[in-house]
Amino acid sequence: MTTRNLRINEDNGSTKILCSSYTDKNALKDFLISRCDKIKDIFDNIFNFPFKEEFEIVINDYEGIILMVFKSSSNNIKYYLFDDDIRYLSVTDGISIVFKSRNVTITNDSLDDENNTKLLVSFINYLGELKNIIPFNIELNLLSTSLRIFNDKFSKIIIEDEDIILTLPYFYKETLHKLSMYIVSKKGLRIVGSIDCVFNDLGIDNFAYRGNVMINIYPESINLDYDLKALRLLKTYVDNSKEKVNKDMFLACSYDDEDTSRIAETEGKLVYEGDVPKSDPLNFIGKVKNVRVYRIGDKHE
Fold it and tell me: Taking the CB of residue 234, how many other CB atoms lie within 10 A of it?
């Protein structure tokens, strides 16, 4: 259906509006207000930009609870929930957050406050409850991780200490043969990075020029020792595991990677320094020519 340059599709209680530079903003405003009167108070704040790119609006209504999802062609996503309150969640490029509810505003900078994180998690979980009754397509586990917040509905705790938690999404298998975990800071329950490891069966060497343990700390969390803490916690987990694998841990770093070199030298022993063979994927795909490889847990000579 097309109404005043609005392209509208109705399907199973869900309304989808496709918008572009040709969309009549006044017509869009009139249509949205006809579906939800509360939107008239915030419409100008929502659409305070020129319509230069395509975007879609999906509206779901269930007994007075209205959820609107705005998604642009550049993958900026906004969620508006209208019930007794008006709640708004904006996700831009996977990491930017603006959440408003009852005069509470949460941004990326304020998520180190655990109470703010819990408020955001409760909103996402509420969306999960609505998902059982309203047919909308939101992958809430991906939403949580893209916002870099820990949500125990979608992840299980593998091991923790007083500072950090190593978590695994529920749909991942817990096995040392291949384990990809998020690093969560207990300050604000933020996801600050990831740690991946691969362990071979007994009798098979774990040495690799790229290492068999890889740590990635997000830029805003570098220099806070999360990599060192995660490595130590992983070592504890591996040592205590009853899984029958070769438990040797190797951490590799390029010559100019000072951060990884620092923790590798603190926690392990240098076992290789030199060229990466041209046939190794780290060289011909990763373009890394020289590495240092440390065996974690070994004592210095």
Answer: 23
